[in-house]
Write a structure and sequence with these properties.
- There is one protein chain.
- The chain has 336 residues and is an alpha/beta fold.
- It has 3 domains: 44 residues, Orthogonal Bundle (434 Repressor (Amino-terminal Domain)); 128 residues, 3-Layer(aba) Sandwich (Rossmann fold); 144 residues, Rossmann fold.
- It is built from 14 helices and 12 strands.
- It has a 6-stranded parallel beta sheet, with helices on one face.
- The longest helix has 17 residues.
- The termini are far apart.
- The relative contact order is 0.13.
- It comes from Algimonas ampicilliniresistens.
Length: 336
């Protein structure tokens, strides 16, 4: 027969309430008691029933992560961080794809009302959907927005996209580049406007006039990076010496087009991206990029939802970024 919470309590010499507190990772339990309960639970192969826990505590121990993002690696990293936080606290993560158009329709309220979760993580571009956030408030569902552009009256986990883009563009300028192309992200993502703002600020502070012909639309996908690069590199007499793509997938698309056109990277064209996803090190030359703390964002978002402290007090958590300089911007003629 399967072990019960009564069996664990009896063998550990504690009350069932203490066992419950330990398994729910609640505070104010002595370490020796916690260790003893966990050891007994493991020896008895005790597995708490999630449904029973929910009935006893009026909680589901489920957190939903909603996503609509062209970059699979971005969502995977957010997911990994959220899962880590959930497992540490006895929760489970529920993944729910939601196209941005659906988030702004009556269907969203029906879906969210059926989830029965304790909280929701909104990833870009859903994190900027005013309609979706209003629905969650009406349903009284706690939620955390990842990388939102609008941060009023909401729990949010972010990094400073504008400052990161400013620093990366400044780096290119310091390398000697004056003709710099820029590939935008998806128009529904708040980060798209922030990254363009940082790019233009760096040009302005360096006294470099913005060339609108070298600003190209993208949507964070590899395919859109290819299309943007074909536009930016089509004229050999009027093309940039460096291209800053708003994420790594699009930067990889740029390098693919450059290779097809016989444009050597970095000798004839420097390329950099954003996010430091796995593709940045898989392609060659390896990609200069901004290391965004994506995993930490997922972990922190889930942790805020799980925390019982001040649930109604909006918190803005800003995490650090780092410029990762690799071969895609090193060794070009401008350095000689």
């Amino acid at each position: 027969m399967k072990a019960t919470i009564t069996d664990v309590a009896k063998q550990a010499g504690v009350s069932m309430k203490t066992v419950s507190r330990v398994l729910n990772n609640e505070p104010n339990v002595a370490k020796a008691t916690r260790d003893r309960v966990m050891e007994v639970a493991a020896s008895l192969q005790y597995r708490p029933n999630l449904a029973a826990r929910g009935l006893a505590s009026s909680k589901s121990y489920l957190i939903a992560l909603l996503y609509d993002n062209a970059s699979a690696s971005y969502i995977t990293n957010i997911q990994r961080g959220a899962i880590e936080a959930c497992r540490r606290n006895g929760y489970h993560l529920l993944l729910e794809p939601m196209p941005y158009e659906q988030a702004n329709s009556p269907e969203a309220e029906i879906l969210l009302g059926r989830l029965g979760v304790d909280g929701v993580i909104l990833t870009p571009p859903l994190s900027d959907s005013v309609v979706l956030r209003d629905i969650l408030r009406r349903l009284d569902m706690r939620h955390v927005a990842v990388a939102p552009n609008k941060m009023d009256d909401v729990h949010a986990v972010r990094m400073d996209d504008a400052e990161a883009a400013f620093q990366m563009t400044t780096y290119l300028i310091e390398q000697g580049h004056r003709d710099i192309g820029f590939i935008l992200g998806h128009p529904n993502h708040g980060a798209t406007a922030s990254r363009r703002l940082g790019f233009e600020k760096a040009l302005n502070e360096a006294g470099i006039k913005l060339n609108e012909d070298w600003i190209s639309a993208g949507d964070f996908s590899f395919r859109s990076g290819v299309q943007a690069a074909e536009h930016l590199l089509s004229n050999p007499d009027n093309r940039p010496t460096a291209i800053f793509a708003s994420n790594d997938d699009m930067a990889a698309g740029v390098m693919s087009v450059a290779g097809r056109l016989g444009i050597s990277v970095p000798e004839a064209l420097s390329v950099c991206g954003f996010d430091d996803t796995p593709i940045a090190q898989i392609i060659w030359p390896q990609l200069t990029t901004v290391a965004q703390p994506i995993h930490k964002m997922g972990f922190k978002a889930a942790s805020i939802l799980i925390s019982r402290d001040n649930p109604d007090d909006p918190k803005i958590c800003t995490l650090d970024f780092e410029l990762i300089i690799r071969e895609s911007t090193l060794g070009g003629p401008l350095l000689k």
